[in-house]
Amino acid sequence: MKATFATGAPGQQPYSEMETQRNNLAAAEHPPAPCSLKEAMAAIQRLCEPLVAERVPLETALGRVLRESVCAPEDIPACDRSTRDGYAILQHDPAQVFQVVDTLYAADWKPRQLKPGEAVRVATGAALPCAGLRVVMQENVATQDGSFRIVTPETALNRRQRGEDVPAGGLLVPLGTRLNAGKLALLATVGCVQPRVNPRLCVVHLTTGDEVVPPEQTPLPGQIRDSNSILIRSLLQPWPCDIFQTHLPEDFALAKTACEKLSAEFARADMVLISGGASVGEKDFTSQLLTRLGFTIHFSQVNLRPGKPLIFGTQGRRVAFGLPGNPLSHFVCFHFAVAIALARLAGEAPPQFWRGRLAAPLTAALCPRETLWPARREGAGLLPLPWSSSGDVTCFAAANALLRVPANTPPLPAGTEVDFLPADFQLPSILT
Ligand code: AMP
Ligand code: MG
Fold first, then answer.
1. Mutate to test the pocket of ligand 1, among 206, 212, 396 (most ligand atoms within 8 A of CB)
2. Which of 155, 234, 246, 317 has the smallest number of CB atoms closer than 10 Å to its CB?
3. pLDDT of amino acid 33
4. Across the strands, what pairs with 418?
5. pLDDT tens by residue, 24-41
């Protein structure tokens, strides 16, 4: 893949500094109309496409999304098997005394038709020699010289029947499923050792803002610690991905030079995330930078609280977001926007709103903007968390859901049914 920074979109000339400044001022004076939350989510869903799938060994497939449906190549189990150590006899054999005619261990395969009064000693897991047998537990018989009597009658058949788990051709794991440990074990069971899955994603995440210092550094007056880098890195964890993170200077010319040196990283990137500089201030160059990187910007504002200055762009199958710098805005924008894009790139169903009930009143002041309100989902109830601005840094540490509060909603009593987005990695495909 060729580097995209220096050339921008095909046929497009690089921006000059003056053009950039003019654009910033023009944008500040005439900001494009913000789209609604619904429009933003729909646009991301529509414009993001699944990446080209690849076949990988099971060992590297955890968390990937299956890009083919896998069906049972044969009955599972493939034959009747004993679930006990004991004696296999005909299911309706009226005999009182049974002759042991053979012994079968788990690895044995010795088909034979049993006759009335005959029994085969079987170990747990052993393939039964013919259909229509039951297994008497060894604890329930009295043996003598190669024969036995049943001393404690049982009703259980103590066998797994051929095809009882899934018949041949039955659907095992559907296309679009995120592979967890159990599903990988199922694929191994049927010999699907190179499943077709989405590729590992490559994400470039750039922070901006001269006030931002690494978290291990003591901030001087006016400085703040970078919390967005670890937030983004952690939120990306459910999607197997390679993440490259670095900080950009808050000067467009210097930022461009820094990006030119990152052409190899950009060339590999399926997704570019830029934290901060997404608004319309003089130093907010995220939109221009993404354009120079070759992305077509589809929207740059969402009529939402928090998270209004959100930029979304695409270039072919590659996706970019400019995220408002405040950590709570990051958290919110990740869950309603970035997570949709990630799900689409990976080829799984994007996260959707669920329905739930407020466990406590929501006494929010009327807001003319739709709000995604941080909340804690405990059991069946949703507890709205207190927050006052997108600069709040404590509430999202407790949040595991975002309540969708329409514009101009009056205070809501406890018990009100509301839409919410899960915000604790519990995307539907991880749950199932
Ligand atoms: P911006 O979107 O660039 O206007 O940034 C808005 C605010 O977000 C800034 O004033 C910072 O307080 C905060 N901020 C920006 N970047 C970060 C970061 N990496 N970590 C924590 N806070 C940040
Ligand atoms: Mg900034």
1. 212
2. 155
3. 85
4. 356
5. 444 445 557 899 999 999
- Are residue 40 and residue 127 in the same domain, yes or no? no
Ligand 1 atom having least distance to the Cα of 211: 11
Q: What is the pLDDT of residue 31?
A: 58
Closest C-alpha residue for ligand 1 atom 17: 325
Question: Ligand 1 test: best mutation among 326, 332, 333, 392, most atoms within 8 Å of CB?
Answer: 326
Q: Ligand 1, closest atom to CA 309?
A: 2
Q: How many domains does the chain have?
A: 4
Question: Looking at the structure, do residues 270 and 331 belong to the same domain, yes or no?
Answer: yes
Given the CA of residue 284, which atom of ligand 1 is nearest to it? 3
Is residue 1 scored above 90 in pLDDT? no
Residues whose beta carbons lie less than 5 angstroms from ion ligand 2: 209, 276-277, 325
Which tens digit of pLDDT belongs to each residue from 52-94?
999 999 999 999 999 999 999 999 999 999 999 999 999 999 9
- DSSP conformation letters of 82-138: ESSSEEEEETT---SEEEEEEEE-TT--------TTEEEEE-TTPBPSSSSEEEEEG
Query: How many residues in the chain?
Result: 432
Q: Whole-model pTM?
A: 0.88
Domain housing 115: 81-160
Tell me the CATH number at 364: 2.40.340.10
